[in-house]
Design brief:
alpha+beta; Aminopeptidase; 7-stranded mixed sheet; 7 strands; 30% helix; globular; binds coenzyme A
Length: 168
């Protein structure tokens, strides 16, 4: 479908950096972004396959969660998503395509989640972070409040848990 009065596909009409709500038909594209972003840290491909369910963003997920896409000149380059339980929101996804990292896209997506949390009057935004992304979340104002001890491929894996308190 083109935008009325133009010959442009909707996404192509986007200039510069823009964040919009995701639609279920973007599930495959957003999943590809998640896989590419996670691979950026150089994890063994075996681990990436083990994490496949965590990296897959389904149409059903998008339909039932606050999910946003970051565009750069019309191209989807990042995605974030929240889940909500009572007064606590959690970051379910935050992924930026490697070629577009370091350009403020992750920060823009994070600010979008923060403003959504404030609109929904959430008390806390929680993040179970990839260890490589901890510094990013701290830069965004989150504080480490604990850790989650799990395992991958028979090896222990400790993930920092961070929080931002939104309403005291
Ligand atoms: C983490 C991630 C989302 C950051 O996105 P980004 O677009 O590269 O980040 P930005 O350019 O918006 O950076 C914002 C600020 O955070 C800093 N920053 C970004 N990544 C960082 C990192 N990994 N460690 C420490 N600081 C970081 C930047 O230097 C910048 O600081 P500044 O404001 O002083 O300039 C992105 O690197 C990514 O998708 N990584 C792979 C997937 C992943 O681990 N996602 C998180 C899952 S929990």
């Amino acid at each position: 479908m083109t935008i009325p009065g133009t010959h442009l596909e909707p996404e192509r009409s986007i200039r510069g950096k823009k964040i919009l709500r995701a639609t279920p038909n973007q599930a495959e594209t957003l999943t590809q972004i998640a896989f590419a972003a996670k691979r950026h840290w150089g994890y063994p491909e075996r681990w990436i396959q083990i994490w496949s369910p965590l990296l897959t963003i389904s149409p059903e997920f998008i339909a039932t969660h606050d999910t946003y896409v970051a565009y750069m000149d019309g191209e989807p380059v990042g995605v974030c998503a929240l889940s909500v339980e009572k007064e606590k929101a959690s970051v379910e996804h935050l992924w930026v395509l490697p070629d577009f990292m370091g350009q403020g896209i992750g920060a823009a997506l994070f600010r979008q989640m923060l403003s959504r949390c404030k609109y929904m009057e959430m008390r806390i935004l929680e993040i179970e972070s990839d260890p490589n992304a901890q510094g990013f979340y701290e830069r965004m104002g989150a504080k480490v409040v604990g850790e989650h001890v799990g395992e991958v491929d028979g090896q222990p894996r400790i993930l920092p848990v961070l929080e931002i308190v939104l309403i005291c």
